[in-house]
Amino acid sequence: MNKEKLRYAILKEIEKGNRSFSHADFGVEDAVFYDQIRYLDREGLITGVFYADDIPYSLIGVEITSAGEDYLKQHSAWAKAYRGLKEIRDWLKF
Q1: Are 15 and 21 in contact (CB under 8 A)?
Q2: What is the largest CA-CA distance in the chain?
Q3: Structure confidence at residue 90 (pLDDT)
Q4: In this structure, what is the dihedral angle of CA atoms 65, 94, 87, 78, given to the nearest 10 degrees?
Q5: Which of 27, 50, 54, 72 is the most exposed place for a label (fewest CB within 10 A)?
Q6: What is the pLDDT of residue 77?
Q7: pLDDT at 88
Q8: Model's pTM, two decimal places?
């Protein structure tokens, strides 16, 4: 599984206004998903993650920062391949 693609997909969903996704939507283990949410938050790509016992509990208030927008621009080549959560599991495998 490509962690950078997972980060990109998470950021794209947030950019589209989707805040109600989980690890199951991406077809990854919950620990992998939580690690990537923590990474995006720690690196300043997103803000507003609500944590409970160090686990990202809610993404309702999450926003993409300017650094997150830069990340999306840097990986814009993936934009054509990424079509949303319906196909995300297959896309992450490549």
Answers
A1: no
A2: 37
A3: 63
A4: 40
A5: 54
A6: 79
A7: 64
A8: 0.85
Structure-token pair, residue 69? 């927008």
Backbone dihedral angles phi then psi of residue 6, each to the nearest 5 degrees: -65, -45
Amino acid letter at 82?
Y
List Cβ neighbours of 11 (8 Å cut-off, separation of 6 or more): 40, 45, 46, 64, 68, 71, 72
Q: How many CB atoms lie within 10 A of CB 46?
A: 24
Q: Looking at the chain, list the stretches that DSSP marks H as alpha helix, in order from N- to C-terminal side.
A: 3-15, 23-26, 30-42, 66-74, 88-93
Q: Which residue has the tokens 């923590």?
A: 38
Angle CA 15–21–87, to nearest 5: 80
Q: How far apart are alpha carbons 31 and 18 in whole angstroms? A: 20
Q: Which residues of the chain have pLDDT under 70?
A: 81-94
Residue with tokens 């997972």: 6
